[in-house]
Amino acid sequence: MFAAGAAHAEFRVCNGTQNLVGVAIGYRAEEGWITEGWWQVPASTCATLIEGELQSRYYYLYAEDAARGGRWTGDINMCVAENEFKIVGVKDCFARGYQQMGFKEYDTGRQGSWMVQLSDTPGTPQESQN
Asked: This protein's superkingdom (predicted)?
């Protein structure tokens, strides 16, 4: 049973663009560094990448505009695959048959929820905590 007005804990990405955006996330888990993708987030909608209370302080995000090719990137290199994936480890991406992309780091502090808003200017996502 949920209390009225209780916040829903999750990591969400909202697409503020007019195009479909593909999103991948990276995080630290018991088995090591994990990257997962792709979430297809249509224009002007949101997608939940992680449901429930956030277990890590740092999360990493990479996104691509499917129509215009714009990218939201950062300085942290992690592995991705062309199709749906869950990859353990961030080293030797190419040798293991993956691609390497730069992910942007988000420090969620002690927040149980986090939301990233992707805008029409790739590389400048906005973030907020709930």
From this structure: Bacteria
